[in-house]
Write a structure and sequence with these properties.
This protein has 557 residues and is of the alpha/beta class. 30% of the residues lie in helices and 17% in strands. It contains 17 helices and 23 strands. The strands form six sheets. An eight-stranded parallel sheet has the order 14-13-12-10-5-2-1-15. A five-stranded antiparallel sheet has the order 16-17-18-23-20. The longest helix is centred in the first third of the chain and has 17 residues. The two termini are 25 Å apart. Bound molecules: 1-O-alpha-D-glucopyranosyl-D-fructose (TEU) and calcium ion. The site of calcium ion has 6 residues, from loops. 1-O-alpha-D-glucopyranosyl-D-fructose binds next to loops.
């Protein structure tokens, strides 16, 4: 594997609308991020992914972009962005922007021109098709519900394609002129603005079959088929476009890229993250994918620790020495990892530390999502009005159509709504948790009195201080080689509740154990083995490390 500048770095994701509000409008903004750069530097962060901050009507919270080269006034201006970039530079933090190019907004200049005149140049940037027998061109279902087809405004039988919200028209990747426009825009950010790279949104969706055939209806019973089926059959189409993208943008400029890639086979991993792969890294969504094996999301079952272990270990083995995954436990599309993947008894600060140990010591470029370092749990939403996300609204409607009661419906959403990752960051224990001086756009998490930055900074045993120590250890010049390149070797699980492995570096072998069971576990170590970090009083006795229940340890073997 070739050595890259971003190997060994720890990344952090900011959901900007909910990070820090400085002008008292209830929405996070760029000056808020600037203000908190020292906090991130102190945490040990070196790469910073910021979810979309571009001009947007916010139908899908900024993932609907109206201008790729401007900042939405809610966040600030391009001048603010430049200030943010230079502040981040001072601390050696690279900025990663969100690249959303499967679709744009219907309020983008291109779409406005295209719908005003479907014969114009811009119309060829979109996917316009004639309807068939008075119906949509085919029977694909969009991710947020309904057909992927809606009528082009003012047209009788002409439809545009959208795999997400109807305000997110898909771009036509088969058009080379459109692709050039995208690469030009990317290079403006990468080279002229000097960002470190991009997180690449929903990118498998560009793998389309331009003939738009009919698909066998799936089990939902509406005669439609999930649009993801078309993508999984056309991974090669996406890969061809992405090879070109890489050769025109990331590769020549030696930039970092991390793909939001779902549903690929093991054989394809090298095409994505191998030495000649299209991206630097792809997120490890194996646990998320194991949860959503069934389309019927309200039939949601949690994973056991053993199942969680199995899927993340498989992902580690598949990536092997091919390349780097990006381990994650949560993001802005997910409920909190501690609430989702841990047994009830460890959905607390102890569990948060132990799960954090796993997140940050697997092989790859780990991403920490805002609030994760505080041990944030899911937010308790009392009714649908407290949720904002368009996907949550759709899921609510589906639950209701299935005849689920209001109580059960809210339970389903409290378990899995994307809104959990979109509530305000918790800075202190004041009203609105120090996020804003006014009522924020989203509900403040109920735990803010104790789970917040200021309180945790003061408490040596807090999740925050644990994360700091953990990240520091990961970057310790003595061990960085083992944490970064060390071979991943799975260890047996003694009680069905333990995640344990080795990271075998050139000089050092590290052992990681996270015990999510109800009793301590023991693992054999060597006579000179040494505990580098324990989240709760692990000890070595008689050549065995004893790891208390609900805790983790990192041992130098
Ligand atoms: O998500 C893409 C995606 O696949 C989502 O449908 C995701 O699987 C789902 O939210 C999980 O419940 C990206 C962004 O991360 C998301 O916020 C956007 O809504 C979406 O693309 C469209 O841009
Ligand atoms: Ca604001």
């Amino acid at each position: 594997m070739q050595t890259k500048w971003w190997h060994g770095k720890v990344a952090y994701q900011i959901y900007p609308k909910s990070f820090k509000d400085t002008n008292g409008d209830g929405f996070g903004d760029l000056p808020g991020i600037i203000e908190k750069i020292p906090y991130l530097a102190d945490l040990g962060i070196e790469l910073l992914w910021i979810s979309p901050i571009y001009k947007s009507p916010f139908a899908d919270q900024g993932y609907d972009i109206a201008d790729y080269q401007d900042i939405d006034p809610i966040f600030g201006s391009l001048e603010d962005f430049k200030k943010l970039k230079s502040e981040a530079d001072k601390y050696g933090i690279g900025i990663i922007m969100d690249l959303v190019v499967n679709h744009c907004s219907d309020e983008h200049e291109w779409f406005k021109k295209a719908s005003a005149d479907p014969t114009c140049e811009e119309a060829s940037y979109f996917i316009f098709r004639e309807g068939k027998d008075g119906k949509e061109p085919n029977n694909l279902r969009a991710c947020f519900g309904g057909s992927v087809w809606d009528k082009v405004p003012g047209q009788d039988n002409l439809y545009y394609c959208h795999f997400f919200h109807k305000k997110q028209p898909d771009l036509n990747w088969f058009n080379p002129k459109l692709r050039e426009k995208i690469y030009e825009m990317m290079n403006w950010w990468l080279v002229d603005m000097g960002i470190a790279g991009f997180r690449v949104d929903a990118i498998m969706c560009i793998g389309k079959d331009p003939t738009y055939p009919m698909y066998t209806p799936d089990s939902v019973g509406d005669g439609m088929c999930s649009c993801g089926v078309m993508n999984s059959q056309n991974v090669d189409v996406a890969l061809n476009f992405l090879r070109e993208m890489n050769s025109r943008t990331f590769h020549p400029n030696d930039k970092f890229s991390v793909g939001e890639v779902f549903g690929i086979s093991k054989d394809n991993v090298k095409d994505f993250i191998g030495d000649d792969g299209v991206f630097s890294s792809i997120f490890d969504f194996s646990a998320r994918e194991a949860l959503t094996k069934h389309y019927c999301f309200y039939g949601f079952e949690k994973l056991s620790v053993a199942q969680y272990r199995k899927v993340i270990f498989e992902a580690q083995k598949t990536a092997g020495d091919i390349g780097f995954l990006a381990p994650v436990i949560e993001n802005h599309d997910e409920p909190r990892g501690v609430s989702t993947y841990l047994p009830l008894m460890w959905q607390n600060a102890k569990g948060a530390k132990a799960l954090g140990t796993v997140n940050l010591t697997l092989k790859g470029v780990p991403f920490v999502f805002q609030g994760q370092e505080l041990g944030m749990l899911n937010t308790k939403f009392d009714n649908i009005d407290e949720l904002d996300d368009c996907q949550s609204k759709y899921q609510y409607q589906m639950c209701q159509e299935q005849g689920l009661s209001e109580t059960v419906t809210m339970q389903v959403l409290n378990d899995q709504a994307r809104d959990h990752g979109r509530v305000p960051m918790l800075w202190d224990d004041s009203q609105y948790a120090g996020f804003s001086t006014v009522k924020p756009w989203m509900k403040v998490n109920q735990d803010y009195k104790t789970v917040n930055v200021a309180s945790e900074q003061k408490d040596p045993n807090s999740v925050l201080n644990y994360y700091k120590t953990l990240i520091k250890l990961r970057k310790d010049p003595k061990y960085i080689e083992a944490f970064t390149y060390g071979e991943f070797v799975a260890l047996e699980d003694p009680n069905d509740h333990t995640i344990a492995y080795l990271r075998k570096g050139k000089e050092h072998t590290l052992m990681v154990v996270a015990n999510f069971g109800a009793v301590p576990v023991k693992f054999d170590v060597n006579v000179n083995s040494q505990i580098l970090l324990s989240s709760d009083k692990a000890t070595i006795e008689n050549k065995q490390v004893i790891v208390p229940e609900g805790s983790s340890v990192i041992v130098l073997l």
